[in-house]
Amino acid sequence: MQYAEELVREYLVFRGFTSTLQTFEKELSTDIGKGFQVDKILDLIFSVYIPKFQVENLIGLLRFFKQCFSSFEAVLTTALAKIEVSILKYYIIHAVQFGRTDKVVEFFELNGNDLLQSNEDWTSWFDFEKEIHREEDFPEVKVVFQETFLGHTSPISRCRFSASGDNIASASIDGTVRQGTDTISKLGCASLTVWNMRTWKAMYEWSLQSPGKVLWSRNCNRFCNPQNSVQPRHEMALDANGRRLLVTSGSVRAPIYQKSFTRQDTIESYGTHGFAECFKLADLGCSSGPNSLLFVKNIVDIVHAVCLKKNVKTPDEFQVFLNDLPNNDFNALLKLTPEFSSMLENEKGLDKNVKCFISGVAGSFYTRLFPSKSLHFVHSSSSLHWLSQVPANLLDSNKGNIYMAKSSPRSVYEAYYYQFEKDFTEFLRLRSEEMISNGRMVLTLPGRSSADHTIKECFYIFKLLGNSLLDMSAEGILHEEDITSFNLPLYTPCTDELEAIIESEGSFSLDRFETSEVNWDMREEDEIMKSGESSDKLIAKTMRAITESMLASHFGDTFIEEIFERYAMLVAEHLSMVKTAYLFNIVVSLIRK
């Protein structure tokens, strides 16, 4: 080896390639063989490649050793293979322990096919894919399980459900086809449209139609070739009942997703025997953004689809009430309603005579808002975690925090829960008076994944805001007593707490719960790149929209800019350590008794 190195040096000096010679010498100093010095090799693996998540370098090093020892006795090559497996598994465990699930995903994407085909020691470890898979690629669906189709040794390129949905046919790029005993003859259909709230035109759309080919528009480049939108990167198929979505993943595994149909199922079950001539619905806590109009269109579309499916008459009129507090500005939203109503009435497939009337209703949803027994459907999203007031007796017991935190005593958790229990009970009682019997209500709110109040998902995004205030206090910008007297009026419940309150109040029966994790930054990666706005800035902007009025009334307008500049920096620091941060989201569907 040294003789070969000298020949290379001699050639580079003779040709005058001095910069190349310097690079060569530098590379020799970090030679992956390290002269087969065991301590240096171990240091390279366990102090550099694994801690810094350099998986390609790690794989390259192990491949290098495999080539070097390929001519040795079988017992030695077998031992080397076991060492290789152990090191790679240690890499995965290290990544999981440090919260770097993205590196686990990267590992399986780069090496999954080879490992699954060549070594049975890895079969059970592919369950990690199920555990670390995140749903941000397909936010409209929820992962139920992932299936490995036996017989495939190449990436799966085609996938189909049978008519019954009980069997799946799949084909890989090497021509292998696997299927069950049923005839693969019928597929369900589904579509998703994302709307531009200014123009009311579809931004992109995908559809699943028999025989199952998926079509994507050009700007949906995550799933298609931007130069040729009829060539999808991933193929999808939906089962006949429209509940499960099968997606090829570029590997020998293909995930199956469970479609999330809370609104559709809720309205479909309500409309079993048809709808009233005037269908009345309310969206609570919604005036500050145009998403409420998207919600209205979604409901109208679902009602129309249910009527077609069940062959019943579509309502002649939709009466929509958009509610929020009196000091919120309804003007921006209401200015969109004439154009929206016109668009809705001219929507393809809807009866031209169908009318939609939209009005704003100012007031707290902890008070009566509507006439008795007048509403058929009630919806609220990201509002019910806000309490009617800050829990009593927090001033001395929650010092240094603006919300529940790990350092908060038990009395603080109890005070927050007591206030939420009181408010949510009153909310249910009031809505029960306003809704007809058998009416439906769908509520979405941030919560906790367990009864433990100290888990980060329920408080950490607010703790960082508190930390920015404490930093300003430490520098003498804010007074410590002002921070001590400030607490956020919100509560993030767990499903057990919600279920107990619903049962205790007694006016509604629980239809279902759905839970999911939501990224602090809910944008897709391509959206982030196009906008040029970093995640920390967007999260700070969102938090400012939520809390600015409360902070300004307590600390004054002067400090608002600095508070959120500091908050953005703390968020950026946090995201740099955890890669992604999630909130726990709860959707609950209720039926008025």
Average pLDDT works out at 74
Strand order of the largest sheet: 15-14-13-16-17-19-18
CATH topology of the largest domain: Non-ribosomal Peptide Synthetase Peptidyl Carrier Protein, Chain A
The number of distinct β-strands equals 19
CA-atom Rg in angstroms = 29 Å
Describe the structure.
- It comes from Daucus carota subsp. sativus (Carrot).
- Belongs to the methyltransferase superfamily. Type-7 methyltransferase family.
- One of its GO terms (biological process) is methylation.
- The protein has 3 domains: 31-132, no CATH class; 141-260, no CATH class; 387-593, Orthogonal Bundle (Non-ribosomal Peptide Synthetase Peptidyl Carrier Protein, Chain A), CATH 1.10.1200.270.
- Helices cover 42% and strands 21% of the residues.
- The protein contains 17 helices and 19 strands.
- It has a 7-stranded mixed sheet, sandwiched between helices.
- A hairpin with a 2-residue loop joins strand 8 (224-225) and strand 9 (228-232).
- Helix 8 crosses helix 9 (291-310).
- The longest helix has 25 residues, at 410-434.
Which descriptors apply to this entry?
metal ion binding; alpha+beta; 7-stranded mixed sheet; 593 residues; 21% strand; single chain; 19 strands; 3 domains; Non-ribosomal Peptide Synthetase Peptidyl Carrier Protein, Chain A
Please outline the helices and strands.
Elements: H1 2-15, H2 18-29, H3 38-49, H4 55-68, H5 74-97, H6 101-118, H7 127-132, E1 141-148, E2 156-161, E3 168-172, E4 177-178, E5 190-195, E6 202-208, E7 214-215, E8 224-225, E9 228-232, E10 236-238, E11 244-247, E12 253-259, H8 262-270, E13 278-284, H9 291-310, E14 317-324, H10 331-345, E15 355-362, E16 375-381, H11 410-434, E17 435-447, H12 460-474, H13 480-484, H14 495-505, E18 508-519, H15 525-531, H16 535-555, H17 560-578, E19 582-592
Parallel strand pairs: 13-14, 13-16, 14-15, 16-17
Antiparallel strand pairs: 1-12, 2-3, 3-4, 5-6, 6-7, 8-9, 10-11, 11-12, 17-19, 18-19
Helix pairs in contact: 1-2, 4-5, 8-9, 11-14, 12-17, 16-17
GO molecular function, one term: metal ion binding
Keywords: Magnesium, Metal-binding, Methyltransferase, Transferase
InterPro entries: LisH (IPR006594), MeTrfase_7 (IPR005299), MeTrfase_capping (IPR042086), SAM-dependent_MTases_sf (IPR029063), WD40/YVTN_repeat-like_dom_sf (IPR015943), WD40_repeat_dom_sf (IPR036322), WD40_rpt (IPR001680)
